[in-house]
Amino acid sequence: MDSPELQTPSETEDEIIESFDVFSPYGLPQDSYPGPICTDSVGYNQKYATRVTSTPLTPEELGLVRGHLRDFFHEDACYGLRCHSMFRRGWARYLEMARAPQHQDGDNVYWFPNIRDYANKQTAVYFVSHGSRPENTGHRHGYSDCRLGCYIYRTWHVLHGWRPNLQRHHFFAKALRVPEGEATSWSIPGLVNTHRRLCDATAARLGGEVVRLQCEDPARGDFPQPDGTARTWCEHGLSLGHLFRAVVLVADEQVLPEECPVQPVPDFSGHNHGWRVAEWLERLMPECTVLMVRTGDDAHLSRPVSFERLIREGNTVPLGLEESRLAEESDVVRVKIDVAMRFMFDLQAEEEAAIPSLRQVAAMLTEERERACHDWVESVLQHASLKEVGMDGNSFTWDAVRRMWAEQDGDIFSRAYQDKTLLASLYSWWGLW
Fold first, then answer.
1. Which of 54, 81, 201, 252 has the fewest CB atoms within 10 Å distance of its CB?
2. Are 167 and 369 in contact (CB under 8 A)?
3. What average pLDDT does the structure give for the chain?
């Protein structure tokens, strides 16, 4: 293909990393922290909220408190990123989901996205249907793009024990919409060609454009902070994901079967409307299926991608007649979304085991995150150790101590965070349908 137009190193641009940015999702240590508020919240178990920390913690208790503070560090990142438009609005076709690039004039790519959003993803999820508004984007049985995005977000955290490496835009997938005018005539071979060109253009930009990353508010304390030097995107730690070229997912009209085993509850009205919807979605979303497509662009992997094990173990869903026609020239299976994500998770692990450089990068990311977590936890405990503050004068230690008490009793203290179905609700991205 023709090389996309790129900046030269002399055309260095400044890129501002805003507060609460996907590049820097974690907190940095602070000199002080606020005290607890709303301690009478219904989300807290009042059996523990009303108790006072009157005696010094034993070494065993302090170890448990440290563990809960480490949970806080990761919960805040998980919760904070849910508020970011890349997730809230970027997984809705009728809002800000990115459009798959169009290709005209042979192989030239007409495509000018925020390139950071394409870095460090394992795959892309292409959304294909014949409508772009909420009422016709596949809301059959209550499905929506946003809700699938919520489910993918939570499942990604579950696969990583609620502690994935999220810094520098690392995530499972980039959501892309096939334009409505092309949805009626799309084909799997055509989509594979589109994705291949997208990958070539993305890799060229990430490896060729030189930018100077600057912090919008260095005093705010987001981690990791850019160092302000002029480098390529790749040198800043943003590159094309190792698996991104090899496998793509397609959420089409059959993302839920016509005869869905989970039907909506007839009446969602009343004061408990939200809770009833949430309970229903917990049963509905695992039924979602996607087409998983091997692109054939996997020569850089340790071995070619194969779906044979999924087929052999009965983890695929039969393709319909029309889908079989679409798949005649490609290696395609239909699987439930959980199966697709587990397959990609295992494939990444296998590649890291086989390729030392991948393994080294993964280890460096984990070490970076864990070091940041350790430093933050110690700064919280240091602040709480001040005589005028104490464990009950710091919001984080106040909560962690009460989680520790509840844990000792076989109970939970903070339902909103310790119940992970509430921390990463499937109801919507903060009210978006």
1. 54
2. yes
3. 86
